[in-house]
Every structure is written in C-alpha cells, then in structure tokens.
Inverse folding.
C-alpha cells in the first residue's frame, strides 16, 4: 500500500487523530525549552531586588553591595539592595522564601540564617535548606578574636594563659545569641574548660562596648573590625578559619593550638525555590566572573572570595548545618 505523509515538523496528517495528539505533544515539548531559553535570554528585563537580612554597613551588606553593583553593570539592570533586618536574619530570609521564584527577588545570606537558625529557633516557619536555592558562594569570612588593648595579652598563647587564670567575671560579647560570633567564643571557652560570661548584643553594639573596654574579648568578622585593628584600637590574636586569613596573614589560626577548630562565616546568593535553573546558571556564571575583579578589595576588607557551582554551595550549606546543629545543642542556646 502506498500513501504519502507530511514530514514537516509540527504538521499533523489529516484524519489521523492519534498522530494529531502525538504531533501536538511533540510541538509542546519543543516549545517549553524554547520558552525557558527566551525567559533566560531576556533576564533581567527589570530591576532585581537583593535582600540583605541584616542592617546596612555590616559584612553581609558590604559584600552584597559590591557584587550587586558589578551585576548591575554587567547585566544592564539595577540590582537594588534592600535591608530587612530582624530576628537573627529570619525576617529578611522568610520574605525571600515567600517571594515569587522569578529571579527578581534574591538574597545574599550567611551561615546564621541558612545553617544555624533552624537548630536555634524553636518556631521557624520554613526550612532554608529546602525553601531556598543556592546560587553561588561569594566569600568565606573568618572571625577574628579581638581584645581591648587593656587586656594583658599580645599573642594567642598569652590569651590562652590569661583566660585560664581569670576570675568569674571574665566576659565576652557577641552580635546575638546563636550567632557565629557567640558560638565561636563558646567553642573556644569549651575547649579551654573556662566558664566565661556571654553578653549578647544586637549587631554593632557589642563592638562599641569592646572598644570602650566594657568587654574583654569577642569574635567578630574581619571586615567589621579590620580598620580598628589597623588603627591599634583592638588587638587581633587569632582567626577562626583553619588557616590564617589573607587579610591578616600574621595572625595565627586558633586551629594552630586547638586542632580542628573552625568557626568562620560565609556568604552567598540564594533564590526562592522554583526559580528557573537557567537563571540560576546565568547568575552563577556572572558572579564567578565578577569575583576575580573584586579580589583585591575583598581581601583588603577581610573576605576570601570563593565562587564555585550551585551544587558545591548546596553541599557546603548542608555540611555546615550538621556541624552547627551539634554546637548549638552543646551550647544550650535557644530562641523562642
């Protein structure tokens, strides 16, 4: 039997209903990737909101602004920073979890809201590891152990000896209960067997009291105190990363005296769950291209640029959750 049929893509032979359905399905299957590509090609077609879940001027804010400015220049649309502080970063983070996953609401976030708070807060209404999509890690930022100049310790070894002989009023500040600042000091005192008094603050108020001599020591992110260190207003004795920071190369790592000690901060871009994988890949590619341009500035300010794939960033956030879950439990820290 001889018959003719059209081989033209999208054309359905007449009076053949089954073939008509198959052709329609094929056309749709081909159209969906094209639509996704068109959406990605047009992105961003309007300003992009970048949430920072902390106050302006902090480490998260500074890193977000530096990278977002470069993204604006490269992609031709403003990447606008919006600070939404409160609740240890939970308020701003939840606002992004609830946002439309269209690529026009992103967040630059850190270790606390992503990998610590679900162990710390009893009533967290979302799971950041499931409800946010990692895009790219921007930087590692070690915490640095800083003391007031009046503390009679000019090296980490001297500080360890000093801490072990101090009376009950030995104290340290932090930027809040359960923050990296708090838990770094807790880990150090736990290793030393010292029962120091923790005095939590809101944000920069802890640094103000340390500078005034009302606190004896604290762990702070390097960018938040590097200018005071260089000005001689604070003494930097150790960093919480496994190796010395490029920003403070002469300051030893805590791990040089307490093997395995690592309690730094990290920062990166996230988006609401459901965002197009093509947009994730586009943003990942652009940020990875931007970081070398910011290398000198970031190192000078106390941050070590990282970059990498979304998959690498996702695995790291999960490892951090497991690590901090145990530390939070050991510390007894909890927020209702």
């Amino acid at each position: 039997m001889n018959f003719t049929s059209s081989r033209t893509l999208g054309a359905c032979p007449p009076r053949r209903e089954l073939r008509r359905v198959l052709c329609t399905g094929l056309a749709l299957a081909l159209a969906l990737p094209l639509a996704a590509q068109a959406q990605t090609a047009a992105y961003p077609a309007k300003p992009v909101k970048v949430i920072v879940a902390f106050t302006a001027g902090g480490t998260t804010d500074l890193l977000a602004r530096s990278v977002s400015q470069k993204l604006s220049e490269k992609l031709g649309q403003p990447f606008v920073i919006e600070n939404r502080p409160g609740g240890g970063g939970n308020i701003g983070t939840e606002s992004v979890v609830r946002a439309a996953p269209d690529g026009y609401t992103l967040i630059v976030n850190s270790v606390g809201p992503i990998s610590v708070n679900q162990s710390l807060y009893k009533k967290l209404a979302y799971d950041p590891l499931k409800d946010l999509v990692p895009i790219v890690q921007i930087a590692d930022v070690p915490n640095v152990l800083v003391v007031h100049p009046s503390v009679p310790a000019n090296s980490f070894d001297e500080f360890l000896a000093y801490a072990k002989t101090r009376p009950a009023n030995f104290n340290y500040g932090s930027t809040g209960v359960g923050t990296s600042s708090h838990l770094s000091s807790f880990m150090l005192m736990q290793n030393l067997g010292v029962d120091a008094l923790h005095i939590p603050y809101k944000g920069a108020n802890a640094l103000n009291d340390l500078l005034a001599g009302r606190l004896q020591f604290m762990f702070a992110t390097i960018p938040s105190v590097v200018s005071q260190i260089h000005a001689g207003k604070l003494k930097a004795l150790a960093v919480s990363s496994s190796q010395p920071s490029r920003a403070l190369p002469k300051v030893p790592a805590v791990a040089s005296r307490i093997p395995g000690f690592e309690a730094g901060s990290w920062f990166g871009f996230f988006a609401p769950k459901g965002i197009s994988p093509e947009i994730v890949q586009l943003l990942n590619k652009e940020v990875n291209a931007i970081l070398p341009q910011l290398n000198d500035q970031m190192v000078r300010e106390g941050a070590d640029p990282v970059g990498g794939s979304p998959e690498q960033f996702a695995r790291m956030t999960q490892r951090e959750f497991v690590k901090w879950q145990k530390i939070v439990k050991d510390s007894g820290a909890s927020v209702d």
In short: The chain has eleven helices and eleven strands. The radius of gyration is 25 Å.
